[in-house]
Amino acid sequence: MVMIEIYVTYLIIATIGICLVNYWYGIHALHEKPRVKRGMKIPPLVPSLIPPLGTLPLKMLWNPRGFVLSAKHLLWNSRPVRARILTQTLYIFQGTETIGSILKERSLSLFAVHAILLRRVFGLPPSALRIYAHDNSGGFPRPYPESNVEPQNRIEYLIRRTNQRLLLGAGFAPFVKRFQSTLTERLQALSIRSHWVKLDDFVQLFNNDFTASMMDALCGKYLIRQHPNFAINLFTLDDNVWKMLVGVPRFLAPRAYAARDAALGALKDWNTWAREHFDPAAVNSDGDDPVWGSKYWRDRVDAFQQIEGFDADVIAMHDLAVIWGMTTNGINTSFWTCLEAFKDQELLKLVRAEARACLISESDVKFDIDRLLHQPVLQAIYAETLRLRINGFFVWYQSRGDLNVDGWHIPNKNWILTTPMSGHMDPEIWCRGAGVDHPVEEFWVGRWLKYADDGQTLIFTTEMAKGAWMPYGGALHICPGRYFAKTMIILGMALMTTLYDCEVLADEKNLRMSMRTFGFGTVGPVGKVSVRIRRRVL
Ligand code: HEM
Ligand SMILES: *[C@@H]1O[C@H](CO)[C@@H](O)[C@H](O)[C@H]1NC(C)=O
């Protein structure tokens, strides 16, 4: 026993020691002149003495956001660095300009990340993963010249093409229109009357009702009607995404696996039902129909069916993955914006006035969406929430030859990592001018507002951001769902504040950000958010 204790103590001291030495070396290397090879600079390596631990200090595990915000030498550099994690080398790029250059690199891709997530989090079997491993044709209409993959197996392109049609192309306007009506109906129909009632957890309203409205708009009404727990299961899986990603086995995470099984089962059932009940005559002029909900799914099924090994299970896994990607960030952001609006009475007045000005019809609470999206305070809340609540990384793999990014050499087959968090939390950017009295951690909409030349009219401005605000990525690597996300978040806030009064009862400490899904985008709060809520008389 004593021997074991001594041994463990020794291990702990050695590990801490190695971390410190590592860190010191790392900092040292960063201040030296970078090595130059054939005219290109090599990002300095933050040395790693024990490869299994890499260079990531342990703080990353217990306070990842704190680590990112304090890791000045790793994530706040204007110069790129290299870090080793396990057997992989990460090229870490920071600074608005450098990130800007990276985002213009066409050959970088999320595709490898997709494959890993599909495998680990959504359970994709090796037979289907083969399609991913073989597809080297890229995400653009014209396949890369070196590629010889069959046209029907161009999975990266087929997924990108269908996403783009839905979110940036012909599918977008009808999708928004459906969502406006499903969300309005659902929020109006909440069983909340004109006297105060207590909700134990405001978050659940977003997880359930916002998600359900989005599913109704995206896949028709069958899914949620037949499988009312779909949204809960989706968020249970989301909350356990790290466990799944690192491969925690089923017996150690039974709830997460059960939630995934149930969600996949629901999607499979809906798919089967939709195939049986689809009626070409019911397709409207936009190409959508009430059974599949949207042309999006028909296009995907048509394409997936031509790929070897893509059976009903594999299709359901893809569907769950994309639904997860399309919902969690926007829904969590919706929650935070509503919370901010309800917490501050002055702000709430402005929000309600701006929303009211966009009402086309009071009786069915119909807003002019286009006008709503241009209201200054609504936009400021949206932008400030994303600035503060994003806890994400952009990670890309590149496999089409060495890269030269602003003179920095990145050899082929490596991972590139950046994060918008440092830029979002940089006092040099956000605390200038009128922002000087408002620390970066503070939610302050003034950063995004100014008066027009007439001195009266409030306008939304991104002047202060100086390009550092990038929750969605940018250039060639930008979220295709950003317009939908903005619509959902601003419409959600307009509807909630117009329909309801709400007082936050929860302790501030419950409202701190949860780190359970750190790295994937907008997180939720750590604790339950109790509120009292009542219907407003319009
Ligand atoms: C606040 C909410 C959101 C944030 C912060 C966000 C952020 C991002 C980011 C950073 C990417 C990676 C871009 C890249 O590296 O290429 C991404 C990808 C994507 N997003 Fe979003 N997103 C949000 C909401 C949405 C919504 C509401 C939808 C759809 C309705 C959506 C659909 C997608 C899709 C389909 C991709 C995959 C693109 C691809 O790999 O081809 N996102 N998002
Ligand atoms: C947001 O994300 C978390 C994971 O951090 C999830 O469990 C939570 O319930 C989500 N929902 C909202 C509305 O914040």
From TrEMBL:
The keyword Transmembrane applies. Its cofactor is heme. The chain crosses the membrane at residues 6-25. Belongs to the cytochrome P450 family. Heme binds at residue 479. InterPro entries: CYP450_sterol_14alpha_dmase (IPR050529), Cyt_P450 (IPR001128), Cyt_P450_E_grp-IV (IPR002403), Cyt_P450_sf (IPR036396). Keywords: Heme, Iron, Membrane, Metal-binding, Monooxygenase, Oxidoreductase, Transmembrane, Transmembrane helix. SUPFAM superfamilies: Cytochrome P450. GO terms for molecular function: heme binding; iron ion binding; oxidoreductase activity, acting on paired donors, with incorporation or reduction of molecular oxygen; steroid hydroxylase activity. The keyword Transmembrane helix applies. This is Cytochrome P450.
